[in-house]
Design goal:
Elements (H helix, E strand, L loop, with lengths): L38 H19 L16 E4 L4 E4 L2 E3 L5 H21 L2 H6 L1 H17 L2 H9 L4 H26 L5 H10 L4 H21 L1 H7 L2 H8 L6 E4 L1 H4 L6 H6 L12 H5 L19 H13 L6 E4 L1 H11 L34 H23 L3 E7 L6 E2 L5 E11 L5 E8 L5 E4 L9 E6 L3 E11 L8 E10 L4 E10 L6
Antiparallel strand pairs: 1-2, 2-3, 4-5, 6-8, 7-8, 8-12, 9-11, 9-13, 10-12, 13-14
Helix pairs in contact: 1-4, 2-16, 4-6, 4-8, 6-8
Length: about 525
């Protein structure tokens, strides 16, 4: 077991501490995060591998939809106005599904934030993931914190030039791969990569790659924490999502204060001393460059790397982990009341421990049931309701639709035999990747018959029409009614369409116009 003085004190200062806080227009102060190790760091590596794997590999997944549809599992087909997601195909008029997913994402973000704070920011936000990746490259090339600080402060030498060029070159490769992966979501990936490689792709492909390469390189490699602090609105919104039962990364000063690196001397002098040895390890590993011991801050993304760093120090000292931990405000306030005797004195570590050195039974501890409160259930209910509604709509939606437009000019024509004729544009929508034979039938409008331009058959009340897979077929239809059958100047009837193979049907109520004198 080590003595307090044997713990290395890192020369790290929070960039936003009161005594060094700069105005917003001040130049950026570089941050050199130290490599962290621990359970939260491993979890972040796992999340990074999964999220980057999904982003880069998804366009290459295949999904067999038959010979009449693309076989790319996830494809945004702008040319044909389709969105394919494995077995799901979304048409433009079904964009409400995408809107519903965005609503679910928003509610889910509120749910996550209200329960476990800014977990999205700390683990799965694209900015966090790519910054983690860029930092891993920087450490691999330039070394850990002290080596990078020394290199940055030193003069330009051949070694420094080679290291910096190598680092930025790899960053640019990653950024270009990021932009390249994005365009593969909008066209067949194997075909497009060949076109991009040979210079035959559309100009918009190269423009997109260039823009995303520049933004990824700038935001992930150069700006880093500045994006989270100044550009992202979520740090300013998330405060409204938190309450006293939300889990956040917390420095438990009820057990850490007063800090001292010379605990034995302080205790020998009859003074109380907390568990924090003021080693600044929590500041050194923070990718945002802040000191969590100052309390909740806008810049904190709750990545919990400070917890890993502090826990490793506590292990070396033979003390309990959790000096920095996930905690709720209600538990923190309860424990502060114990440590300060209800606020009558400053933090006294002896009040939170028994004579044997164990923590007092009066201390509050987190339990998973604390996050399941009315607010959580409301968010979960709203999220589930939207999801169930979308799922029900998806499972019961029709894949065959008909829409009808009545000719406006003229609205009717009186033929030589005295009968009245109306013209219509009938749109048949086949929303599956298979050819269909659709039967179009006219219902109502006694004595009337219809004829279809392009179909060389006598007028009738029903026609069979071949419709290509995943296509809209437009028909010019004329409906004729004998004069003696016209009941009024305006009559309604129905166009009914049916696929005999799948038994899918749809109907549209149309209007038949006639002159007043025809009554």
């Amino acid at each position: 077991m080590l003595d307090y003085t044997q713990i290395e004190r890192l020369e790290a200062e929070a960039v936003n501490s009161a005594k060094v806080r700069q105005p917003l227009y001040a130049p950026r102060k570089k941050i050199f995060p130290k490599r962290a190790s621990g359970s939260f760091r491993r979890f972040k590596w796992l999340v990074m591998v999964i999220t980057l794997g999904i982003y880069y590999l998804t366009p290459w997944l295949r999904w067999d939809r038959g010979p009449f549809a693309p076989d790319q599992a996830v494809l945004i087909d702008l040319a044909n106005r389709r969105f394919y997601f494995f077995f799901i195909e979304i048409w433009p008029q079904e964009f409400f599904y995408v809107a519903g997913l965005l609503v679910m994402a928003g509610i889910g973000l509120f749910l996550i934030t209200s329960t476990v704070g800014r977990a999205w920011c700390g683990y799965t936000c694209p900015q966090t993931v790519w910054v983690d990746l860029f930092l891993a490259v920087e450490r691999a090339i330039e070394g850990d914190r002290n080596a990078r600080m020394k290199l940055d402060a030193g003069p330009w030498t051949a070694r420094k030039f080679v290291l910096r060029v190598s680092k930025h070159a790899i960053w640019l490769v990653i950024a270009a791969a990021t932009g390249g992966a994005w365009i593969f979501y909008f066209a067949d990936a194997p075909t497009l990569i060949g076109e991009v490689s040979t210079g035959t792709a559309a100009p918009v492909a190269y423009i997109t790659i260039g823009v995303l390469t520049a933004t990824t390189y700038t935001l992930g490699g150069l700006m880093r924490e500045q994006v989270c602090t100044y550009m992202c609105p979520w740090p300013r919104i998330q405060a409204a999502m938190l309450d006293e039962n939300s889990l956040t990364v917390t420095y438990n000063d009820w057990r850490g204060e007063p800090r001292s690196r010379h605990a034995k001397k302080v205790q020998a002098a009859g003074q109380s001393v907390g568990d924090c040895v003021d080693c600044n390890a929590c500041v050194a590993v923070c990718p945002m460059g802040i000191d969590i011991r100052h309390g909740q801050q806008l810049e904190c993304i709750t990545c919990a790397l400070c917890m890993d760093a502090c826990d490793s120090v506590m292990d070396k000292l033979g003390k309990e982990r959790g000096l920095i931990s996930y905690a709720t405000l209600s538990d923190y306030n309860a424990n502060m009341a114990v440590a300060t005797a209800g606020g009558s004195c400053s933090v006294n570590p002896s009040l939170v421990r028994t004579d044997g050195g164990a923590f007092s039974e009066k201390l509050a501890h987190f339990h998973i049931r604390k996050i399941f409160r009315p607010r959580t259930f409301i968010y979960m209910g709203a999220w589930s309701a939207v999801g169930i509604a979308l799922l029900y709509s998806l499972l019961t939606r029709d894949r065959l639709e008909v829409n009808v437009l009545h000719d406006r000019n003229p609205q009717f024509v009186t033929l030589s035999d005295g009968s009245i004729r109306n013209g219509y544009t009938v749109k048949l929508l086949n929303m599956i990747p298979e050819p269909r034979t659709i039967v179009v039938t006219m219902q109502g409008l006694r004595g009337a018959e219809m004829s279809v331009v392009g179909i060389d058959l006598p007028a009738d009340r029903s026609f069979a029409v071949a419709v290509e897979p995943d296509r809209l077929k437009m028909l010019k239809v004329f409906v004729r009614q004998p004069t003696d059958q016209v009941g009024s100047a305006t009559q309604t009837f129905k166009f009914r369409v049916e696929d005999k193979a799948s038994f899918e049907t749809d109907e549209y109520t149309a209007t038949f116009n006639a002159p007043e004198i025809a009554r």
